[in-house]
Structure prediction request, 552 residues.
Amino acid sequence: MTDFSPHRPDWWRQAVVYQVYPRSFADADGDGLGDLRGVTGRLPHLAALGVDALWLSPFYPSELADGGYDVADHRDVDPRLGSLADFDALAAEAHRLGLKVIVDLVPNHTSHRHPWFQEALDAGPGAPARDRYVFRDGRGPGGVLPPTDWQSVFGGSAWQRVPDGQWYLHLFAREQPDLNWDREEVREDFRTTLRFWSDRGVDGFRVDVAHALAKDLAEPLRDLGAPELSGDAGLARLAPGTHPFFDRDEVHEIYRDWRRVLDAYTPPRTAVAEAWVPGDRRALYARPDELDQAFNFEYLQAVWDAEAIRAVITGSLAGARAVGASATWVLSNHDVVRHASRLMLPPGTDDGGWLLSDGLAPQVDETAGLRRARAATLLMLALPGSSYLYQGEELGLPEVADLPVEVLQDPVWEQSGHTRKGRDGCRVPLPWTSAGPSYGFGPAGAWLPQPPAFARYAVEAQDGVEGSTLELYRTALRLRRKLLAGEELTWEPDPAPGVLAFARTDGWRCVANLSDTPVPLPAGEVLLSSAPPAPDGSGTGTLPPDTTVWLA
Prediction:
């Protein structure tokens, strides 16, 4: 059995981490925006759920140009969400309940309201203050054209012109100017930030856009030649490590430097990289002298197909093993369509187009989507490594795809010229009760409208109800803690078409039927099933489609 002692320095290797998006978790003061005191008040829910840690998405001072990822001060709390004293109280209560605390670190950029950026604007071209960011003169007569053809992840040019005629780089929203990590002052400031939160008892960090910090800023800056090369296509078509601003080889020296800071604490602080890079490159971020883990987005992006998912699992385990890390698994987060909806979309469906149709093209069968989501979760929780859960998935929440455009907050909507609806649909505040102005989210309304269907998904409606999704998660996490031993799996030979079957250490097994037909239920004691097995007269029964079972 795995030792889950909180004093283990590698507690994270097979942990279950719960992502809290603070503005949408719980609102204690009634202003419609979730806050830190709201999170603290709901920590017993996480302890009862059985997770090992919570990861707090940004709670720093921000104008919310990008949902809090536009940070004006990396070492403070947004007054609308509370204070440093509130954070300390949250961390203390989490630790009392046996929960580790991970905070989001946003090192690629700041808010345009950050004192450094305001100083850079006031200082003018050529001033040292501007060198903390990436300012350049434009091209063409009078410098009216951007310095390069680089594109923002959110759409449009990655350059924004300022009144004195220069341009600054922003790989995301224009309110998020990119920092210049060639500058030692920037590096030292983030060492200070790592120590600041570690000294307050934080157990680890989630590193936002970990693959973007190092950039090729040698003059002349080079064009990519096509807009699509600014994204995933560029990583696929350019030689590894040579993209001008993503996944450059030089980024790893930054994390080796961070590891020395993190290792100065007892136990060492952990870190997980958000690096949207191919698997063989992703593993590099999790080497022993860098960050401990890196998010495995191939699993999240895999289609509902047994062969495809098996290939992702096999490759992910091999990649993590090669660098001495453990694998990570995730199905939903604050940036993607919730998996209770996404897994029902036909292969090749554009999520963005589906959202633009308000979830009507195609229309998702909510009941079928929940069944598939439960099966996917039980499969994920049986895998070796760490599982990262997103708030509300334990309730089976679907994507809120039909948010009216007038309530959208995500900058993607405006920056893409209204061609991409954005990520608000997975950020709608949680329902805690089946009634009330915000279904228990707070004493008043919520910053994004919750659909009436949320009433039946509420914690109150599922608590203690046999077969509910909430109780499935609770049971699965309780069993997982008892069953885990080692970090290996053994694939069972010759499963039925569309079936994934593997054994874990100590002989327990996971069988997932991803096909559209029932298959014979293997012999063994059923420990847990995402849906009830069906009797077939043979005494063993069948495993229905879209169902995962754990067997002893």
About this structure: The two ends are 15 Å apart (CA to CA). The chain is about 25% helix and 10% strand. The mean pLDDT is 95.
